[in-house]
Design goal:
Helix content is 49%, strand content 10%. With 842 residues, it is an alpha/beta fold. The chain starts with a helix and ends in a 7-residue tail after the last strand. The protein binds adenosine-5'-triphosphate (ATP).
């Protein structure tokens, strides 16, 4: 139970938090019950209520560190922090660390590593996981065993085989719990029993292949101590369930668990929430079952809607919010018609404030364009109209179901002078210079398994980023070296002959007997040797050369040419130098050192300066101008990465609490006593609370060391698919409907609302039943409700068909038909229908 007296005292104060909330929101945020779920529609202030609940708990005397706030994406965590900053000020907010499920699990697994059976695990990026599947598929033995005939692909419609298996492995992990020590066949049977069909239905051959791939993948990942994103959740759940000491320590640390966007939790995440919550801690879950859009990943909105109350029964409260503050009335009405399959009555209404029209343009326009080209023209035109009416570009968004559907609009909008920013997944982390920097970082934090990264990122042929460190060693000689060192080391562990698999263990072989945990004398000697060499005029890569000379070279190195051997020496020197530096330097300093010593930064700087000098003397050719632009962007990206490194401690959660440490003391000093710890409005002011915290909490905040670098590396690898790049707020944002979740824009254009694009049913899901259709309906509902003032909903009446080689008519989305009928019956004021397509329909 929350302390009722404190709650009452806090809610009686006319504080800033209260003034920002309506009656229903206050009831939810200040609920005295121990377990509360808030179920409410879009724009009703759910995220605002989570922020208010956090502020309220802190104002009631709970230490910020005792709150565990879970959001679905890092972007959502950032947005929540921004709101909290406004409510609580910077110093208190700095002590809050909203986490995603994945980052939380990674940190717990790292911190309590000695209690897991994979103490030295490394997070496998999507790329690592795909590489693993690929290496399995390249194994002729494995294919033969599964009855593949020569040249056969699993997915004959041309879809990438690796993606196909990755998706099914992930599905198995998403739809099942207790996956440990259970075979693919058993888990697939469990899924089937729960009504989740696999592609091919009862085709035992397809099922057998997926099961066999699953087993092989799981075995190889475990052998290399790699955890993919799904594994992080399962392993963390197992850690908490199997270890009472760890669970107790976690319960002592976090007394209040708050989960935003709970409709998207899958079974494993829901069980994690339960495991993180002790009988005496509070749980606050917020969500909207109608906005559940990740059913394909195993998310189940019923967990919030039903299981929550079943589990927490009599102590649980359910709150709802019924006013939509975001969207004007016609937008809310159209969205409700979609959600309620055409029924007009609604449980959510636009708030009075949002009913005021801002400019005299229709609020919702439903438009049937002639074809896809006309659709693109109309979208570009509408964006310009909104702009002329006074909206800035950054207040507009174009949303689409799949990226391939937006190409035409993007081209036309740019041609019409509309500045556009097309969101792309992981754009920043996939930039070549950032990938190279991360591969260098991997060499430091995980040298034994860095082989794949070295091969793919540092010795890659034709890479746009030069890595002087490795010059003299190309991919072919690298593979030859891999084979030689493995043979010399007598390695018989790998069952595969693929280069990918052997290069994974190559990292270890390359190091020879290099000390990975150098003594402080060794570390200081290494650092001195390097700085003496650079001071004497050696360039950075030359200075690396002799560092590892005192230790045995790797087995097989004798067969290398002089140039190849030099590259290997430099790499060994880099590992030695980096690990020595890590002990005494901050993450950003180590990263800067890696970029400098590897020659990446000097090479980039020299190329940039050469072009800038040329530009000062003469007009650059278009190729040179383009190159200059790219080099500047590369430099900017490396600076951004260094900035991330500088903030490592600010964004990484540190659940650093020893198993025997005391419970974090309530941060009562100055908060409840009114001894100067409150601002006029009753909100705890930042300076007083920050001073009271550090002494009361045994949280470790290291400033140097490999664990911090590991956190930085984890942060970069855990880049989720929804954490898309959003760096140019001055432009119209073009993004998928999925990525738009949780966001809002003054004006929104929704594209391609025809029946085979919305709903989009993948062939694998064709027989999966109404769930899949419901998810698509929810997705459209989410997309419409991102709009505050205006919404254009458009679809082409016809499109060119490559199969028929002519223009074929298209049907409007089935979800919009009830809306069109309501418009024709004049039931929707503020909604206008336009038809530019005059194809005769049967
Ligand atoms: N009481 C209120 N007074 C004024 N504005 C409010 C109030 N509550 C919420 N808002 C505003 O309404 C908008 C939607 O709020 P919020 O993002 O918290 O809703 P949500 O329920 O989380 O939305 P969704 O689920 O659709 O993402 C925001 O711009 C927010 O500032």
């Amino acid at each position: 139970m929350l302390r009722r007296g404190t709650v009452a005292a806090a809610t009686q104060r006319p504080d800033i938090t209260q003034r920002l909330l309506n009656g229903e929101q206050q009831l939810a945020a200040f609920s005295p019950e121990q377990h509360v779920k808030v179920i409410a529609g879009p724009g009703s202030g759910k995220t605002r209520v989570v922020a208010a609940r956090v502020a309220h708990l802190i104002a009631s005397g709970h230490a910020p560190e005792s709150l565990l706030v879970i959001t679905f994406t890092r972007k959502a965590a950032g947005e929540l922090l921004q709101r909290l900053q406004e409510l609580l000020g910077g110093a208190i907010t700095a002590r809050l660390r909203p986490s995603t499920f994945h980052s939380l699990c990674t940190n717990l697994l790292r911190h309590y590593r000695q209690h897991t059976h994979l103490p030295n695990f490394q997070v496998a990026s999507e790329e690592d996981a795909a590489a693993m599947v690929k290496s399995i598929l390249e194994n002729a033995e494995f294919r033969k065993e599964l009855g593949y005939f020569a040249g056969e692909q699993q997915d004959r419609k041309g879809k990438d085989e690796v993606t196909y298996y990755r998706k099914h492995i992930s599905n198995i992990k998403n739809f099942c719990v207790n996956i440990e020590r259970r075979s693919g066949a058993e888990l697939i049977a469990q899924m089937a029993a729960a009504g989740r069909r696999l592609p091919g239905g009862d085709n035992s051959n397809i099922t057998r292949r997926i099961a066999a791939m699953y087993d092989e993948y799981v075995a190889r990942m475990a052998q290399q101590q790699l955890l993919d994103f799904d594994d992080l959740l399962h392993h963390c759940l197992a850690l908490l369930l199997n270890n009472t000491e760890v669970r107790a320590a976690v319960h002592r640390r976090w007394r209040h668990v708050l989960v935003d966007e709970s409709q998207d939790t899958n079974l494993c995440q829901f069980e994690l929430v339960q495991a993180l919550t002790s009988p005496s801690s509070s749980l606050f879950m917020v969500g909207d079952p109608d906005q559940g859009i990740y059913g394909f990943r195993g998310a189940k909105s019923a967990l919030l809607a039903e299981s929550f109350s079943q589990l927490y029964g009599p102590t649980a409260a359910t709150r709802s919010l019924s006013e939509n503050y975001r969207s004007r009335e016609p937008i809310v009405q159209v969205a409700e018609l979609v959600r309620r399959h055409g029924r007009l009555s609604s449980s959510i209404a636009a708030s009075g404030r949002s009913r005021q029209p801002v400019v005299r343009l229709d609020t919702v326009v439903l438009m049937e364009a002639r074809n896809e080209y006309d659709e693109a023209d109309q979208v570009a035109l509408q964006l310009r109209r909104w702009h002329e009416a006074g909206y800035v570009w950054g207040e507009m968004a174009v949303l689409f179901r799949a990226k391939r559907l937006v190409n035409e609009v993007y081209k036309k909008a740019i041609a019409a002078g509309v500045p556009c920013h097309l969101w792309s997944r992981e754009e920043f982390f996939e930039a070549p210079e950032v990938s190279v920097a991360l591969a260098l970082l991997r060499c430091l934090v995980d040298p034994l398994r860095a082989g794949d990264s070295i091969r793919k990122r540092l010795v890659k042929k034709g890479s746009p980023v030069k890595v002087p460190l490795m010059s003299g060693l190309g991919p072919d000689s690298f593979d030859a070296l891999a084979t030689a060192v493995e043979a010399a080391a007598g390695s018989s562990s790998s069952s595969s002959s693929s280069s990918s698999s052997s290069s994974s263990s190559l990292g270890g072989c390359l190091l020879g007997d290099l000390p990975l945990e150098p003594s402080s004398e060794q570390a200081i000697a290494t650092l001195h040797q390097y700085s003496a060499a650079t001071a004497a005029g050696a360039d950075s890569t030359e200075a690396l050369q002799g560092l590892a000379a005192a230790w045995q070279p790797p087995a097989g190195a004798k067969k290398l040419t002089k140039k190849q051997a030099a590259a290997v020496d430099r790499l060994r020197g880099l590992v030695l130098l980096g690990r020595a530096a890590a002990a005494v330097s901050r993450p950003e300093e180590v990263l800067e050192l890696l970029l400098g010593a590897s020659g990446v930064r000097p090479e980039l700087q020299a190329a940039l300066e050469a072009l800038q000098a040329k530009a000062a003397k003469q007009r650059l050719s278009s190729k040179d101008s383009e190159d200059l632009k790219k080099l500047r962007k590369r430099k900017g990206n490396l600076d951004t990465l260094l900035k991330l490194a500088r903030n490592t401690r600010a964004y990484t959660e540190s659940p650093v609490l020893g198993l025997d440490a005391a419970e974090p003391a309530a941060n009562a000093a100055g908060l409840e006593s009114g001894d100067g710890g409150e601002s006029d409005a009753g909100v705890p002011n930042s300076s007083s609370s920050s001073s009271s915290s550090s002494s009361s909490l045994p949280l470790l905040q290291p400033t140097t060391g490999l664990p911090l670098l590991q956190q930085l590396y984890d942060y970069c690898v855990l880049q989720g698919e929804d954490d898309e790049d959003e760096r140019d707020a001055q432009k119209v944002q073009l993004m998928t409907m999925h990525a738009s979740k949780g966001k809002e824009f003054a004006c929104v254009a929704l594209l391609r609302l025809h029946d085979d694009a919305m709903p989009a049913i993948h062939k694998d899901d064709a027989g999966a039943g109404s769930d899949v259709l419901d998810q698509e309906r929810n997705l459209l509902y989410v997309a419409i409700t991102r709009a505050k003032e205006h919404c254009l909903m458009i679809w082409p009446g016809a499109a060119f068909s490559r199969e028929a080689w002519r223009e074929e008519p298209l049907e409007v989305s089935r979800f919009l038909k009830p809306v069109l009928s309501a418009v024709s019956r004049r039931q929707l004021p503020g909604v206008q229908q336009q038809r530019r397509c005059f194809i005769e329909r049967e």
